[in-house]
Design brief:
Layout lengths: L1 H13 L2 H5 L2 E8 L5 E3 L1 H14 E12 L5 E12 L13 E13 L2 E9 L1 H8 L1
Parallel strand pairs: 1-6
Antiparallel strand pairs: 1-2, 3-4, 4-5, 5-6
Length: about 130
């Protein structure tokens, strides 16, 4: 199942939302850092459109882990980003760059991701872009 997670992150780094969606189940549960759980590919797509408008990010130093039975996985990485457009409730954007450790956790079934949970230190991000 680490192949599915790798394909998901390769698509992320390529800005390929369709490639990311191909790795997800139709009923994917997307647990956003400090946000609501969004269920389904439509809500995941809307989230990606919003993120691509406000941020340009590349993930590096990726390490992927998986359970022995392949039903769960995790990844640790560094987010290298540029804040492109002001996101509601956050500091004003003016092209600030940031570098932030982060992690994602996954449930997988039948070769597809059924849950994505992402964590990062929002206070650290705010400090970097303020």
């Amino acid at each position: 199942m680490t192949e599915t997670i790798k394909r998901y992150f390769d698509a992320f780094n390529a800005g390929d939302v369709d490639g990311m969606l191909a790795c997800l189940s139709d009923d994917v549960a997307h647990h956003v850092n400090e946000g609501q759980i969004r269920t389904g590919k439509d809500k995941f797509t809307a989230f990606c459109v919003h993120m691509n408008r406000c941020y340009r990010e590349e993930l590096t130093d990726m390490v992927i882990f998986a359970s022995e039975n392949g039903s769960r996985g995790a990844a640790e990485y560094i987010v290298n980003g540029t804040y492109l457009a002001t996101d509601a409730g956050l500091p004003k954007a003016n092209g600030q760059t940031y570098r932030l450790p982060a992690g994602s956790f996954f449930d997988l079934r039948d070769g597809l991701i059924t849950r994505v949970t992402t964590y990062y230190n929002l206070a650290d991000w705010v400090k970097q872009v303020s």
